[in-house]
Amino acid sequence: xxxxxxxxxxxxxxxxxxxxxxxxxxxxxxxxxxxxxxxxxxxxxxxxxxxxxxxxxxxxxxxxxxxx
Length: 68
Hints:
Elements: E1 2-5, H1 12-25, E2 30-34, E3 39-43, H2 48-57
């Protein structure tokens, strides 16, 4: 599982675009977005760099979440 923080994901429309970017890399991925916290959890067989690249290309560069 991958977990990212996406500072630019502020609404449901953003969350859909983030999800679509991830699904463009791995159509079988499971994606959970939370716009208020800007967190995304992904279960995917794709590699992390491919997911990060797709998010960046979609205009939603991701960061690693802060440690709790």
